[in-house]
Amino acid sequence: MGKSYGALALIKALTVAYIITGIALFILAFLMYKMGLSTSAVDFGVTFVYIFATAVGGLIVGKSMKQKKFLWGLFLGAIYVMIIFLVSFMLTKGVVSIQGDGLSTLLLCLCGGMLGGMIS
Fold it and tell me: Rounded distance, CA 109 to CA 55, Å?
């Protein structure tokens, strides 16, 4: 298993994680529109989506890699959240604060990915 295999497994897992994220956030937005969900319910839903998506991604990359699965999951979570911060930075045309919500998002994505890697 060379570096290219690890990179391909990581890209595959990230793709699945972002597909899950897109579908789940679309469903959450639809529910918010139809049911008038509160902001606290939406915040919980987004947090759950992040954790679930990174856990599934960590599970996929962990199954592909036979050693140090939790580290691969942790790495997936780090890349996942870095891409989210990068896209957010580009869309807002400003600095993305990694305080408060940003820090908790970072930690939750790292833990989600690592959990998925551990249970793979």
Answer: 8
